[in-house]
Amino acid sequence: NRYNGALRRPTCYACGQETTQVALDRNGHIICDACIAQCATCQDILCERCGVALCPVCGQQNCEDCSRLCWACGERACADHSSICPVCGDEVCHACQAECASCGVRQCRSHLRVDHVRAGQQVTEFICADCSIRCPGCQQFSAHTGICSASGQRFCTNCLATCAQCGKQVGLGFYQAINDKTYCLD
Fold it and tell me: Which end of the chain is least crowded, N or C, by CB within 10 Å?
């Protein structure tokens, strides 16, 4: 203070406390050690007000310039864990996307279907609209299918049965069960 000669230390831009050691963030703000944040991508120092966001996939801190806003969850993901959905064209973080179990294309989970055949098992498989087929027997979607020998239709593996006498695979409606054995209509 030039009028009374008292020494006054600068205050931190983020928390307002007097600083003993001065650091400047990339925007020129004076910050204390407690309010320093560093972007994992560009390595710039930022104050808490300017901010860094944790990537929902890897947990690394990234600044606004190095991260992408996910419209689905509202989080800011790093550029490595964010991609454009081929179905809707929106940029979405990988926490909100999944890969099709059949073709491997990554897209928003809202565009994928749960594979009916694998639904009851420990690992849930998601399949895209291009790979999923609606079974004529159970009316559920699946990528695990086979062809009925009697009709030529594609059925999910849950609706297919093997004839105990001739060994043909037939779909629901083209076989009957007698004494816990399956027989085709032929």
Answer: N
pTM metric for this prediction: 0.66
Class of residue 114 by CB neighbours under 10 A (exposed 0-12, middle 13-18, buried 19+)? middle
Residues 60, 75 contacting (CB under 8 angstroms): no
In contact, 128 and 88? CB cutoff 8 Å: no
CA distance 37 to 57: 19
C-alpha dist (Å) from residue 21 to 17, 38, 39: 12, 17, 21
What are 139-186's pLDDT values in tens digits? 999 998 999 998 899 999 889 999 998 999 999 889 988 888 899 888
- The answer to whether 156 and 132 have CB atoms below 8 angstroms apart is no
Which residues have CB under 8 Å from 104's CB, separation 6+? none
| Dihedral angle sign, alpha carbons of residues 89, 95, 101, 104 | positive
The single residue listed with the structure tokens 């064209």 is 89
Distances in Å between the Cα of 161 and the Cα atoms of 7, 25, 184 are 88, 68, 9
- pLDDT 10s digits, 15-65: 888 888 878 888 888 888 888 888 898 989 888 888 888 899 998 999 988
Count Cβ atoms within 10 A of the Cβ of residue 128 and give its class: 0-12 exposed, 13-18 middle, 19 or more buried. buried
